[in-house]
Amino acid sequence: MTAPPPVGAPPAVEKEKDERKPAKQKIDPWNVAGEVDEGGNVKAIDYDRLIEDFGVQPLTRAHLDRFEKVTGKPAHRLMRRKLFFSHRDFDKILDYYEQHGQFMLYTGRGPSSGSMHLGHTVPFLFTKELQELFDVPLVIMLTDDEKFLHTRNKNEGQMKAGSAPEDFLNFAHDNARDIIALGFDPKKTFMYSDYEFLGGHFYRNVSEFESMVTYNQASGAFGFNESTNIGLISFMAKQCVAAFPSSYPDLFGLPDYRAPDYDSSAKRRHKELASIPCLIPCAIDQEPYFRMVRDRSERMHDPHPKPALIMSKFLTALQGPGGKMSASDPNSAIFMSDSPAQIKNKINKHAFSGGQQTEEEHRRLGGNPDVDVAFTYLSYFLEDDAELEDLAKRYRAGEILTGEMKAKCISFVQGFVADFQKRREGVTEEVMREFMRPRRLVYGGNPNPVKKQKESSDGWAGAGSEAVGGGEGKEGKEGRGTKGERKAAKLAEKKAEKEAEKLALREKS
Amino acid sequence: MAAEEAVGAPPAVASQVEEKKGTSQQIDPYNVAGEVDESGNIKAIDYDRLIQEFGVQPLTEDHLRRFEAVTGKKAHRLMRRKLFFSHRDFDKILDTYEQYGTFMLYTGRGPSSGSMHLGHTVPFLFTKELQDMFDVPLVIMLTDDEKYLYTRNKNEGHQKAGAAADDFLDYAYENIKDIIALGFDPKKTFIYTDYEYLGGHFYRNVSEFESLVTFNQASGAFGFGNSTNIGLIAYGAKQCVAAFPSSYPDLFGYKDYRAPEYDLSAKRRHKPLSTIPTLIPCAIDQEPYFRILRDRCDRMTDPHPKTALILSKFLTALQGPGGKMSASDPNSAIFMSDTPNQIKNKINRHAFSGGRESLEEHRKLGGNPDVDVAYTYLSYFLDDDEELEELASKYRSGELLTGEMKQRCIAELQKFVGAFQEKREGVTHEIMREYMRPRRLEYQGNPNPTRPASSAPPANGVPAAEDAGAEKKGDGRGTKGERKAAKLAAKKEEKMATRQKAPDGDGGASSPAA
């Protein structure tokens, strides 16, 4: 991920803008800046405007209803609360899930030293909970190479201490353990770092995607220039093809071809994987990035469906709307490494309050939960809509004081962070390596898809309507390998055909 | 390699440049064009001029003498005949070999469908013979990804039939079998394609190198523009780090870390490997490419010695000086798929002759072997200097006729191509896969180095145990958990090593000169 550290977190703003001059809202992968009014005040982000500017779709009540119908579960609270508020093709994902029973989730993080904060973890939590609701596979990409290239580029080609490729790989390992501590299911979650994983089918996809992006297009989207290093210029292809299930054959029970094994029966491409769609939960500033992959998915040799996006607003910093969570400012966010006392102090001292100046005024006029940070954080965690609504109502009525709202928030956040820290203790090297091992993922998907998947020779769940290896051999070169390999594959196919025939005969009778 | 089909072969010219009158010579990885005089005649390449322009060094008699002193063998005929005529740091390679006993050879090919021709095979043959003489490891890179990116770029982003990524991987396999048929030693030759091999330490080096090259620098060297695809723009880094032994730990008995094994004790970088220099035999038009590499070797986290080059002229096309060998013109070269008859006809009918118009004139005035293609081809293959000199002098005196020169040449070529084709038949899929398997290579190098390296990985021994402890923080040792595991392993090795160590082993102090 380029400048913004993780998917879903408000990115650190790269340039120090003069915040006093009136300026329009500016949101892209390197800038998150609200409009500045005449008085030099930074206004809250205008998300309706953003939806228009980017041409994305709002997430509506109809979507939530459909979600509930298809999954049989209530729509996720962050959708109900409109933290995740816009999308591209979310309805197509629901269609596909309804018909074929599965899809792939994809998210990622640019590794950095230091703890994650709420701005990172809440979106990851959302992804985890989506994974549970849908029971689908998830890949998490740690972009250690991009961080290296970006850091070096920022330092004009100099490599400072602590910024070698290995350092970012080490950060990736640490971050991986943090992410695991959020409770992802090891059976259906694959995590990887680029430095460790790049190769095989993933690299083949990278190469093809790279051939479809010109320097102009990449610089236009990401602000590169002639002094940008060639690694950074070409990196985006990796982040894009990371959204394709076809980049990870192992996860779906199909062979990859990689040093040093070179499984000679492994196909160069697995066409069936190209039909599985992907859903990417991310913050809305990442949208220009994924526009690049959506514009090219169908031009891949095996056309891929356009990845779907479900996008969030920026999480509110402690200092309230207009502020930014930042890893370098401890008082802008709750960090996963914070102690209970630190959490209490931060909320009490730094969380922007929607209350009135004095208790008497507050009892009389009531407070505004919409700008109250403690309430906002509660809305991220409190599952029960009625309970949350009640809090809001009583706050508006002046029944609940700011201090009480804060106390409730503190309690929740302390619980969340404490659970995390405890789980983090238990994430050993071995546990991490298991998440990072390319292996077949196990998941159920939709228990009642409309189109039942046909039995295939390696029996993995639902690859669209074609059985694995079904229609492949006919059309010219399907990436089947060389003559020697095709010969071996043909023998295997004949064997499978015979078995399928036997099965068919049995089923008939 | 870039637009070229093979290292050392005259490249097919990427852009169709109108052969104007009165243009100067233009040589770079995408153009090989001799000067065009006023009347529109293409002159032969001016190599002295090229040496000056590129700032490379000429290969002199001193170098050849030194070669002989160091290897105990006669300088390779292609150096004696000055087909390989210039270099960078060839003397440093000889120094390293003399003192520490080894270096790595590196060459490559951009895969394409169809047979190789002499323009491809002669340089590969030179490399093979260098490998035999020095007894050193060799890596051969098949740049299937570059060919794919280049082809797609040429077609403005469209992927034509037969030009998908997988097609170039298939061409690579065919080319590899051809290369194997030239007789490379399977014990010390590693051949790979980018699509299969990229990952692990190789990719780590790619990433580091990419961070050292800006768009400006890449475009300056290779003529990229704003419409060039980002894959092609970034590709050069792969071809450059392919020259680093540190990209191939397996070959040297070190561990790589790759999906899916992720060997936990594998270091992220193997510092000792960064001290081994590399020699690249290639045609002189590739030089700008490797200039990019040489300028950055010592800026890697583990500084690498500057890669050495030994550079060749372009092999003469059948039509003589000024002509170009081309895969698309069957009569411009002898192809490895030619039948004996085709060889005979091509030489007889198309090989430019240095002889006179008539038999009588030829007997009287004699012929010019220097422009005679048959003679030139003989000079590539005939090892005996005296025999070759005799042919030249008899031709000059008119004693030897063109037809006879051609006949001699035909016989030699038929033999070479015939032997190749027979060997090619025998190259099975399994044999190919063995060359392509990342495994420890076996080689002796210099049997009498003056300074045997104790910390540089010895040719066939186990890497020194000191290596594990010698690397301090930030040496790419992995994370805490991994370092712990590695420490335990290192302690174990140390125990074993102290039992076997010779008294003067000082682990880590002496390494090949950077």
Structural class of chain B: alpha/beta
Radius of gyration of chain B: 24 Å
Terminal Cα separation of chain A, in Å?
Answer: 56 Å
The total beta strand count of chain B reads 9
Mean of pLDDT of chain B: 85
Helix content of chain A: 40-55%
Instruction: Extract low-pLDDT stretches of chain B.
Output: 1-19, 455-475, 501-514
The shape of chain B is globular
Low-confidence stretches of chain A: 1-18, 455-478
CATH superfamily of the domain at 47-316 in chain A, please? HUPs
The coarse overall form of chain A would be: globular
Secondary-structure element string of chain B: EEHEHHEHEHEHHEHHHHEHEHHHHHHHH
CATH class of the domain at 47-316 in chain A: Alpha Beta
Fraction of residues in β-strands of chain A: 5-15%
CATH class of the domain at 48-316 in chain B: Alpha Beta
For this structure, the quaternary state is heterodimer
Task: Report helical residue fraction of chain B.
Answer: 40-55%
Report what the structure shows.
The complex is a heterodimer of chains A (509) and B (514). With 509 residues, chain A is α/β, with parallel strands linked by helices. Among the domains of chain A are: 47-316, 3-Layer(aba) Sandwich (Rossmann fold), CATH 3.40.50.620; 479-508. In chain A, 43% of the residues lie in helices and 8% in strands. Chain A is built from 19 helices and nine strands. In chain A, the strands form two sheets. Chain A has a seven-stranded mixed beta sheet with strand order 3-4-9-8-5-6-7, with helices on both faces. In chain A, helix 2 (61-71) packs parallel to helix 4 (90-100) and helix 6 (144-154) packs across helix 7. Chain A starts with 25 loop residues before the first strand and ends with a helix. The relative contact order of chain A is 0.13. Mean pLDDT of chain A is 85; it is low at 1-18 and 455-478. Chain B is an alpha/beta fold and 514 residues long. Chain B has a domain at 48-316: 3-Layer(aba) Sandwich (Rossmann fold). Chain B has helices at 47-54, 61-71, 77-80, 90-100, 118-134, 144-154, 165-180, 194-197, 200-210, 215-222, 230-241, 287-294, 340-350, 359-365, 373-381, 385-396, 402-425, 429-435, 466-470, 480-500; strands at 26-28, 31-33, 57-58, 84-88, 104-109, 138-142, 189-193, 278-283, 308-312. In chain B, the strands form two sheets. A seven-stranded mixed beta sheet of chain B has the order 3-4-9-8-5-6-7, sandwiched between helices. In chain B, strand 5 (104-109), helix 5 and strand 6 form a beta-alpha-beta unit. In chain B, helix 15 packs across helix 17. Mean pLDDT of chain B is 85; it is low at 1-19, 455-475 and 501-514. Classes of the chains: A alpha/beta (509), B alpha/beta (514).
